[in-house]
Amino acid sequence: MTLNNYTNFIQAHISKMKGYTPGVQPRWEEEKKNKIIKLNTNENPFPPSKLVISALKNAIKKNRMHLYPDSSSLKLRQAIGQSYDLSEDCVLIGNGSDELLSILFRAVLASGDAIAQPYPSYSLYPIIAESLAAKSINVPLMKNWHINFQKLLEETKSRKSKVKIVVFANPNAPTGIAESIDEIISFIKANPVISFVDEAYAPFWKDSLASYIPKLQGLVVCGSFSKAFSLAGQRIGYLLAHPKIIKDLNKIRDSYNISYLAQEMALAAWQDKKEFQKRIKIICMRREALIRELDKLGFETLEAAANFIFTKPPKHMFTANTYGQILAKHRILIRHFPRPSRISNYVRISIGTASDMKKLIKCTKSLSRFKIGSF
Ligand SMILES: Cc1ncc(COP(=O)(O)O)c(C=O)c1O
Hints:
By secondary structure, the protein is of the alpha/beta class. Helix content is 37%, strand content 15%.
């Protein structure tokens, strides 16, 4: 197809972008037929809870799919707010937390501004910044893989700094390492710009900063229903901040960004927290069991605080990339990041069902009998 010169209308900085590469999502039919084990995008191995499914059925029965949904997701905002003693004015609902990241960045960043982030972290942050012609300042993780808060502060406080947002995930991705709440609070108190804390994986750890919203100026917290609440397919996230910030973010949100069904399911999931807590416990137990098994085979795994592990296969066995490729041939999908080089020896493995974990370990054990080069 020809397009003559119409591509010239696309802004140059967007044309130059590489864009985000999501983890492989096989078609459902292919996944079922080939019995693919998906451990590459940190989804929850449990299906939505019974309460969530019955909320879905009730919502369908109400026969109102031809009407627009509540444009402000009020009931969901109230429920989330109540859990943290916040009014619904402190809550914004998004089409996944990815959309909320994008809304906040669009509201704050002008061309030439910057975000500061620990590096590596969630690779979408710099991509959204880039789409706005803003820069990303990468502050490398420390030797022990923890966030270098001191360096992040130096970046925001330097006189030349155009940093408007410091963004980090806690627990971080892809490392899975969590920072202590006390350390984060000290950082936020000293940080003169917006602190955006991405808590997509926080329910697998222990603490959230949500209740600190009224006390810490400039704190913005984001949570997701994709990981702990088994609703990745419904795309729902929430953002918590001071009502004045929420009011401005609301102005640039699509009016009907959350579907009717997604709102009903997310509300039921939030109300069924106890059930999800039980599942989180099981996922964390499986995670620790997997680490122990891989340990015996000589893998080196980082401290893990989320629903995945970040692990280095033993050198004499295979490189991380080869390990990922061989597992893929055995229909087990995991994630390898070739860049930056510091993490290229590691793979990220999501915690799946008990049977997924058994198959992964069995396959890894059988592979470990071979040596590098024999594949
Ligand atoms: C750190 C982090 N934040 C946010 C997301 C996206 O979450 P959502 O599905 O709510 O858009 C992911 C997805 O993997 C993630 O790893």
